[in-house]
Amino acid sequence: MKLTFRQQDFLSKLLDIYRWTKGPIHYSTVAERLGLDNSTAYDMLRLLEQKGMATSVYTPKATSGPGRSNILFVPSAEAIELFSHLAGDTREQDEWEDVKAYILDGLNRGKADNYSDVFNELLSKIPEPHSPLVSCAEVITALLLNLRKTRQEFAQQKAVDNLLEAPASKLRMSILAGLILGLSHAGQETQRIINARQKYAEKYQASLQGLTRDGLIKLHRFTNDVWSILKTPNT
Predict the structure, then answer these.
(1) How many Å apart are CA 50 and CA 53, to the nearest integer?
(2) 81 versus 89: which is more confidently predicted?
(3) Which of 45, 79, 143, 153 is the Cys-Cys partner for 53 at CB 3.0 to 4.6 Å?
């Protein structure tokens, strides 16, 4: 079941308390930690239980006499998995924003040395494990930088323009990488990529297949940004 923002926030805080206590939690403890009254905390925990995000545990009372057992709660396995996934998404997004900013800033500053520093830095980073989006971005940027070094004619560059002007698709992004390699096949640095490090192109293809639709659109926009910078004549 879907959770509202308020329910997600409550569940996230419940998970924090659970990690700290390392065991089942009484609703009064949750209420105290979150600044809620007991009935509100209890009702929310029961609601999360109905949605499969929490499990209630009954324990005997500490003292004898009439009354019900204590009711404690723990996050369900589904809740722990959900927030682990969300945390992973956040880390990947943070990595993407950092890498994107690093590459685009480097390109905007790198015209004076013909982008050599950016290119060499990318080649050193490509073998490292990254998310599919970051891996694709690093490889396609290195290929575009190498294409620029070969000083292709306008008509050949127009073929790259045409692919990037079309809607984003995995097929077009795959064709783009092959086209760039073809246009710059004689370049020394391309041989460094193709011959000595063929695994880079293979990594790009594998990473490309692992992209979500959102990741594909981000890669397409990023590649357009990189290509726009590289097409601008040095001043």
Answers:
(1) 8
(2) 81
(3) 79
- Let me know if 81 is exposed, middle or buried by CB neighbors in 10 A (0-12, 13-18, 19+): exposed
Report DSSP state, residue 110: G
Question: DSSP label at 73?
Answer: E
pTM over 0.70: no
pLDDT in the model for residue 226: 93
Buried b (16+ CB within 10 A) or exposed e, 25-61: bbbeebbebbebeeeebbebbeebeebebbbeeeeee
pLDDT at 66: 47
> H-type helices in 58-131, by residue range?
77-109, 116-125
Query: In this structure, what token pair is assigned to residue 92?
Result: 């990947």
